[in-house]
Amino acid sequence: MKAFQKNLQKLEAADTQVLGVSMDSAFANKAFADSIGVTFPLLSDWGGDITRQYGVYVDKYNAARRINFLIGKDGTILAEQLDSAAIDPTKIVDACERKKLNR
Amino acid sequence: MKQRSVLTVLGAWLLVAALLSPPLSQQLRAENNPSAPVKLKIGDQAPDFKLKYFDGSDLKDVSLSQYRGKKNVVLAFYIFAFTGG
After folding, report:
1. Neighbours of A31 (CB within 10 A)
2. Would the pTM of this model clear 0.80, i.e. be above it?
3. H or E stretch at A28
């Protein structure tokens, strides 16, 4: 999440909203956001319905996988990054900026 | 003599256990599961959602559809609060 915060200005400049999602409570997420200086919303999927709907629920630890989805303005998925690759947002930033240039 | 047979039985058990359990590397691989496919593919429609976050004073709703036609959205699923990444 910190890595996204670092790139937030670039992403916002490319018309992109960053949303974190986890199965923690909204209040735990706010405390987490404050502790690492994240200013974008960290959404609470309490119960995991959306995590399951997106197919990223992991039974083993009752939580989501580390995954980024880049969703375009038309609601389609433009890019995905899984697990350790999801920690570095460079590719997502590049994809957003490229998209902006092509428009 | 008695001690020796205990050791033999113990040794045999350990051997059986070692043969039955998968190698550690395989277990680790299954846990990390780097190649496990994701249900949603590039080009698929992202399911709409409505989730809450706490902005410091109120619980606010956020839905995917509110950004439609306006902004791209990066949806970053993470495992737990207070973990890295």
Report:
1. 15
2. no
3. helix A26-36
- Residue ranges and CATH numbers for the domains of chain A are 2-102 (3.40.30.10)
Query: Cβ neighbours of residue A70 under 8 Å, at least 6 residues apart?
Result: A16, A77, A78, A79, A80, A92, A95, A96, B72, B73, B74
**What is the spatial distance between Cα A99 and Cα A1, in angstroms, rounded to a whole number?**
22
- Whether residue B29 lies within 8 A of chain A, CB to CB, comes out as no
Separation of alpha carbons A58 and B44, rounded Å: 21
Q: Is residue B78 part of a domain?
A: no
pLDDT in tens, A62-95: 889 899 999 999 999 999 998 887 778 788 888 8
The residue with tokens 């593919």 is: B41
Percent of chain A with pLDDT over 70: 97
Domain span holding position B6: 2-67
Structural domain tally of chain B? 1
Residue of A nearest to B38 (CA): A55
A4–B59 C-beta distance less than 8 A: no
